[in-house]
Amino acid sequence: MKLPKKWLCEYVDFNVSDEEFVERMMWRGFELAAIEKELPEVFGVITGRILKLEQHPNADRLKVCQVDLGDKVTQILTNATNVFEGAIVPVAYLGAKIKDMTFSAANIRGVDSYGMFCSGKEFNLTNAEYPNAEDDGILILRDDTPLGEDIAKVLEKDDIIFDFDLTPNRPDCNSIIGLCREAAAALGQTMREPVIKHYGGSGTALARVSVQNPTLCPRYCGRVVTNIKIEPSPLWMQRRLRSVGLRPINNIVDITNYVLVEYGHPMHAFDLSCIADSHIVVRNAEKDELVTTLDEKQHRMDEDMLLIADPQKGVGIAGVMGGLNSEITEKTKDVFFESAVFIGSNIRRTSRKLHQSTDAALRFIKGVEPVNAFLALERAVELVTLLNAGTVVGEVIDVCSANTSERSVLVDVAHINSLLNLNLSGESMLGLLNTIHIRGSVEGEKLRLSIPHYRTDIESGIEADWDIAEEVGRLYGYQNIPAELMTGATFRGSIAPQFRDEDLIKDTLVGLGCLEMYNINFTSPSALNTLKFDKDDERMLAVKLLNPFGEEQSLMRTNLYSGMLDTCVRNVNHKTGHGRFMEVGNVHFDNNLTLPEERRMIGLMFFNENESFFTLKGAIIRLCEAFHIRNLRFVKGGAPLFQPGRKSLVYCGERLIGEFGQVHPDVLDAYGLNTPVYLAELSFEALTGCKPAALAYAPIPRFPLVSRDLAVVVDEGVEAQSLVDVIANTETALLIENVRLFDVYRGAGVKSGMKNLAFSFTLRAEDHTLTEDEIRTAFESIIAELEKNGAPLRK
User: Fewer CB near the last or first residue (10 Å), C or N of the chain?
Assistant: First the structure.
């Protein structure tokens, strides 16, 4: 929100420097986005009088001018034809800047020049702002203009504009009046509140209003003005509108924009002659009803949208934009001013559906209130009268179902102090709150407060303590609250198991060198096809969006793979050098007759020359170990997007947890990748569901373990996991533990089509030290079981 300093000073005595004002507003929650000059991108341009004008000796079109700048006389060359001796003109002297151009001395055909004369175009002036400013040639200033004066001051465009970033909870400050209230409190001043003069109209109102949906339109105020004279606004209004970034149009439209900026309430003016029977009807649109707005765009409405209409047609989209068929033109004689309250949630839906974002819509979305609607209309009528723009007829038409009575809240002083770590009395709090027009009284240990109508952000009931605590805190000054270590419980309640599990997953994977990524939940049909899923794969059952941003984001994702591969492409193209990423996110399946099914998944992506199928497998094992999951099994299988022979399913016992593997070259080509990529997708629910309900602790074995190795020769098609299961489940009198594959060999000494698998394991007894006979017997039992399963010992 832009706040011109001169406008501010009309309501508040400005008694500090600009920098201190900005700092005080910042401590009260109003962050400054920028400080702008009213005449932007112009620096160092001053006024000068042309004392002497002569022909350039070597250029027919150039003149040599001697120019008095007040404290010095300089020489400037010009090709302008409208300058003359005695003329006072703007001079861009040495060091001056206009936009991205800095002026320095120049020599043109043997004659030095120390600057340039400026036209009105350099300052974006109009004829309304300065006589003949739009003419070709140099801007000729008035004869009484002082020399050496900054051009911004001469043109009365020397104001400072404070541009504040507002938080969404303060729609009241989206106005000059609202910001001035806060500025007055920050400066320790009393704001000169504007007093709107009511103008009673002659005769009876020439229009009537019917509100068919008071839920979406709790207040609709209107007023008729006849004998309208469409003309440019006075210069002071045009300057103020330009200072806040609005373009003046004509007096009627400018009045509505001026009130919008001043009071923060959107208004609209209809040509009354275009309203059938002079009857405004606020209703829901009919399905597929067409309305053409002021920007000449035709919109197809639906029943959820609120329409401003007459008995025959729509004349505007409520809270968004007026209709072209009721536009104010030079022929307009009678005007109906509208100032209404429309529910923000409905305006938000309408604005999004129609892809129509306007300043009015944004303000309705943030929230407007019914009292201000009436004040804005009264202010507009006052301006009409002051500008002599027309004749006010009748009184205000006010259809109101909203509660406009004063609201009061009861807050607890002790609770507020506990929230802020302060020890203020109720009277001290009242003193602070009075500076922002929140009045009240002390009732024992509580405060009874009257809330101004424009402070819609302060809730009633249980939320009031928190909202008033926020006001007291910022008024007292957060910087003045003593810094202390927190004591007691930091929060009430505990972290849900799901979030604890998610934190453990992320912490474990970050410890393995993974960076976390967040990908959007949307995907495209082409992405699903690129991943080579089978037709009957449930990952092809994607939820279609009704109003997508485009084909590339038309489906809800059913997997994490496409997003991970997009992330891989970006990182490879930008040469980030990092090759390990993880994501925890939701996927959705259109496999339900009522609502889509949502599942939480864990994604892992390893890529570059240092990674392999086994580094990714190791990360999965480590993740499962963090949840104390021991009975992992890796079984051949996985999605078609992985290379055959380099993919695996992950089981915990008989429960499928997920899959992983090396991405197929065809998929890599489709994404334009030329580096190996390894992906994994695990079910969050399945993984966390496999963790033991309670951890059982056992003492360290008293008796020593015995390690043994063996190697078997099997067909290439035999999975190592099946032999691990055989060894681990062999019935012996001893405990067989820590079975693992540690080597795979193919080559000399092993027949073609066969492979050598080497396993290690440990043997132990719980109550004694093993003897050689026990070890030999157990070892022979394992060999016998392996031979039964087609895995003879290598000789």
Answer: C
Q: Where are the alpha helices (DSSP H) in 463-612?
A: 464-476, 497-511, 525-530, 561-573
User: Where would I find the H helices in 285-408?
Assistant: 344-354, 359-366, 370-386
pLDDT score, position 650:
95
Taking every pair of C-alpha atoms in the chain, what is the biggest distance, in angstroms? 124
- Angle, CA of 610, 615 and 619, to the nearest 5°: 135
Structure tokens at 787: 């031979």
Distance between CA atoms of residues 299 and 350, nearest Å = 11
Dist CA 420 CA 414 (whole Å): 10
Nearest to 223 by CA among 241, 198, 244: 198
Q: In which region does residue 790 sit, left (phi positive, over 0), alpha (psi from -120 to 50) or beta (all else)?
A: left
pLDDT digits (tens, 9 = 90+) for 68-120: 999 899 999 999 989 999 999 999 999 999 988 888 899 999 999 999 999 99
What DSSP string runs through 299-317? EE--TTSEEEE-SSSEEEE
**Can you give the pLDDT at residue 489?**
59
First to last CA, the chain: 85
Reported as a single tens digit per residue, the pLDDT across 612-642 is 999 999 999 999 999 999 888 898 899 999 9
Long-range pairs for 119-128: beta carbons < 8 A, 24 or more residues apart = 122/42, 122/45, 122/90, 122/98, 123/39, 123/42, 123/90, 123/151, 123/155, 123/157, 125/155, 126/238, 128/232, 128/235, 128/238, 128/248
Q: Which helix (H) or strand (E) holds 652?
A: strand 642-652
Span 296-319, average pLDDT? 94
- 367: how many CB neighbours lie within 10 A of its CB? 17
How many angstroms separate the CA atoms of 469 and 194, rounded? 29
91 near 117, Cβ under 8 Å? yes
Using alpha carbons only, give the angle 66, 104, 81 rounded to the nearest 5 degrees: 45
**Helix axes 251-263 and 176-186, enclosed angle (nearest 10):** 40
Q: In the predicted model, is pLDDT for residue 488 greater than 70?
A: no
Task: Answer yes or no: are the C-beta atoms of 661 and 678 closer than 8 Å.
Answer: yes
Question: Does residue 47 surpass a pLDDT of 70?
Answer: yes
Per-residue model confidence (pLDDT) at position 536? 87
Separation between Cα atoms, residue 53 and residue 117, nearest integer Å: 13
Residue range 514-523, pLDDT digits in tens: 999 999 999 9
With bands split at pLDDT 50, 70 and 90, how would you rate the model's confidence at 676? very high
Note the pTM of the prediction, 2 decimals: 0.64
Contacts of 420 (CB under 8 A, 6+ apart): 469, 472, 473, 476, 481
- pLDDT confidence of 693, banded at 50, 70, 90? confident
Q: Look at residue 76 in the predicted model and tell me its pLDDT.
A: 93
137 Cβ partners below 8 Å, 6+ apart? Answer: 80, 81, 82, 83, 119
Buried b (16+ CB within 10 A) or exposed e, 730-766: beeebebeebeeeeeeeeeeeeeeebbbebebbbbbe
Mean pLDDT of 496-512: 94
According to the model, what pLDDT value does residue 733 have?
87
**Residue 535 parent element (H or E):** none
For residues 344 and 347, give the distance between their C-alpha atoms in angstroms, rounded to a whole number. 5
With beta carbons less than 8 A apart as the criterion, state whether 62 and 108 touch.
Answer: yes
Is residue 439 classed exposed, middle or buried when 0-12, 13-18 and 19+ CB atoms within 10 A define those classes?
A: middle
CA nearest to 39, candidates 133, 174, 138: 133
Contacts of 345 (CB under 8 A, 6+ apart): none
Contact 152, 165 (CB under 8 A): no
